[in-house]
Design brief:
CATH architecture of the largest domain: 3-Layer(aba) Sandwich
Strand order of the largest sheet: 3-2-1-4-5-6
Helix content: 40-55%
Order of helices and strands: EHHHHEHEHEHEEH
Oligomer: single chain
GO molecular function, one term: 5'-nucleotidase activity
Enzyme class: hydrolase
Distance between the termini: 18 Å
Number of helices: 8
EC number: 3.1.3.-
Number of strands: 6
CATH class of the largest domain: Alpha Beta
CATH superfamily of the largest domain: HAD superfamily/HAD-like
InterPro entries: 5'(3')-deoxyribonucleotidase, 5_3-deoxyribonucleotidase-like, HAD-like_sf, HAD_sf, Nucleotidase_putative
Radius of gyration: 16 Å
Structural class: alpha/beta
Keywords: Hydrolase
Length: 196
C-alpha cells in the first residue's frame, strides 16, 4: 500500500459545504413562488425565478447575510472536513463577498468546520485563487467552475450532483452525490488508486 499523500483541497462553500437547496425557501418567500429545489435547472436563479439579474443581485445584497447564517450543512460535510483537517490543507474559495467574512467564519465555528484559509472572492472566477493556493483537488457545485478548474489546472474536481449542473463531464471532473462518496474518492486519490 502506497503512503497517503497530503493534498491542498480547494472547497467551494455554497451548495458544496452548505446544502444546495438552502436558497430555495428564502427565494420562494421573497418572490411569492412555490418552486422546489428540483426545479432549479439553471445555476443562474434569475432565470429560474424569471427575474432580472439586477433583481437577483439586489435580493442577494439584502438577504446574503441571513442566507449564509441560516444555511444547513450539506449532509455530513462537517464530519468529513473534521476528519480531513489533520491530514490535508483545506482552502475554502468562494464567490461570497469579503463583507460576509464574519458571518462565514461564525457559521464555520457553529458547525465546528475546520479551515486553513477562507478566501471570499466576490466573483465566480476561482482560477487565480486556486492557482495562488496551489490546490491539488477542487470540490464544487457550479459546472462552469468545475470545467474551467479541471482544464486550466489539470486537477481532479469533485462536482456535487445538482439539477443545475447536468452535462457530459470531461475525465478530470467526477460527479459525486454525497460527502460519503467524496470521502471514499479522496481516499482512493491519496493512495494513488483509480477514481471510480
Amino acid at each position: 500500500m502506497k503512503p497517503e499523500k497530503i493534498l491542498t483541497i480547494g472547497i467551494d462553500i455554497d451548495g458544496t459545504v452548505t446544502s444546495p437547496s438552502s436558497i430555495v425557501p428564502m427565494m420562494n418567500e421573497s418572490f411569492g413562488r412555490d418552486l422546489r429545489y428540483e426545479d432549479c435547472y439553471d445555476y443562474n436563479l434569475a432565470n429560474v425565478y424569471q427575474i432580472t439579474e439586477a433583481e437577483f443581485e439586489q435580493w442577494l445584497d439584502q438577504n446574503g447575510e441571513r442566507l449564509y447564517n441560516e444555511a444547513p450543512v450539506h449532509g455530513i460535510a462537517d464530519q468529513v472536513l473534521r476528519k480531513w483537517y489533520p491530514a490535508h490543507k483545506l482552502i475554502y474559495i468562494s464567490a461570497r463577498e469579503a463583507r460576509h467574512h464574519d458571518v462565514t467564519l461564525n457559521w464555520f465555528a457553529r458547525y465546528q468546520i475546520p479551515y486553513h484559509e477562507v478566501d471570499l472572492l466576490g466573483s465566480h472566477d476561482k482560477l487565480e485563487a486556486a492557482r495562488k493556493w496551489g490546490v491539488d483537488l477542487f470540490l464544487e457545485d457550479r459546472l462552469e467552475n468545475a470545467l474551467q478548474l479541471s482544464e486550466a489546472l489539470q486537477i481532479p474536481v469533485f462536482l456535487f450532483d445538482t439539477p443545475y449542473n447536468q452535462a457530459r463531464l470531461p475525465e478530470l471532473v467526477h460527479r459525486v452525490s454525497s460527502w460519503e462518496e467524496v470521502d471514499r474518492k479522496l481516499k482512493a486519490l491519496t493512495f494513488g488508486q483509480a477514481l471510480v
